[in-house]
Specification:
This protein is of the alpha+beta class. The protein has helices spanning about 5-15, 50-59; strands spanning about 20-25, 25-30, 35-40. The protein is about 30% helix and about 20% strand. Bound molecules: zinc ion (2 copies). One zinc ion (ZN) binds next to loops.
């Protein structure tokens, strides 16, 4: 399911209470997880393992 950056941030905050994010040209990074929570290219959630770019970013 495609979600935007704002949705990804609010959903991540709701799920983890993490509230610090960095935006990069690729997507949104959570400071707490130190990992991407959203990649713009695919608009996928971190649970996605379908796309090569998702697997690499979220690995
Ligand atoms: Zn987080
Ligand atoms: Zn994906």
């Amino acid at each position: 399911m495609a979600i935007n950056r704002q949705q990804a941030r609010s959903e991540h905050t709701a799920a983890t209470t993490h509230e610090q994010f960095s935006e990069t040209i690729y997507g949104v990074v959570c400071a707490g997880c130190r990992n991407y929570i959203l990649i713009d290219k695919t608009n996928c959630a971190p649970t996605c393992r379908e796309h090569e770019s998702c697997r690499q970013a979220y690995a």
